[in-house]
Amino acid sequence: MDETSGDRSGAEAVRLVAVRDEPLSLDEVFAAVGDPSAGGTALFVGTVRDHDGGRDEARVTGLGYHAHPTAPAELRRVAEKVAADFPVRGLAVLHRVGDLRVGDLAVVVAVSCPHRAEAFDACRRLVDDLKREVPLWKHQRFSDGTEEWVGAC
Fold first, then answer.
1. Tens of pLDDT, residue by residue, the chain (153 residues)
2. Residue 31: which of 54, 15, 46 has the closest Cα?
3. What's the CATH fold of domain 25-150?
4. What is the DSSP string of 96-109?
5. Would residue 59 be called left, alpha or beta, if left means φ above 0 and alpha means ψ between -120 and 50 degrees?
6. What Rg do the C-alpha atoms of the chain give, in angstroms?
7. Residue 22 CB burial class (10 angstroms; 0-12, 13-18, ≥19)
8. Would strands 14-20 and 90-96 be described as parallel, antiparallel, or unpaired?
9. With contact defined as beta carbons under 8 Å apart, do 107 and 130 qualify?
């Protein structure tokens, strides 16, 4: 099929989907979504921050992301659904697992579409659906010695 065609299926627009235990690359994700018919590319980068919105005093000192064995397949399903619901030309999403430090990249998402508004909307939806539907859990450690699981059932 012609690369500039707007008739791509959602699955064909999904170019990179992975759950990885090594550092994530912005360049890899951005390069994966390039397309001559895309006028807008939205990129989201989620990083480990030094605090949690629900705690006032204890600082986050690190965290671990854990994934259910079905997480990669669920991530692909979510990505394909977003690509089918928007005029996506290219979509890429990487999520990190394992122990991370403050400042490390936890998730990198990019979506290219014919226009910027579509790219922004698709990128936001992908991040929101990923957080809601993909079985990934965060184990946070705090400066006061406490810890908590986020997203665990």
1. 223 334 456 789 999 999 999 999 999 999 999 999 999 999 999 999 988 866 667 899 989 999 999 999 999 999 999 999 999 999 999 999 999 999 999 999 999 999 999 999 999 999 999 999 999 999 999 988 899 898 754
2. 15
3. Aldehyde Oxidoreductase; domain 3 (3.90.1170)
4. E-EEE-TT-EEEEE
5. beta
6. 16
7. exposed
8. parallel
9. yes
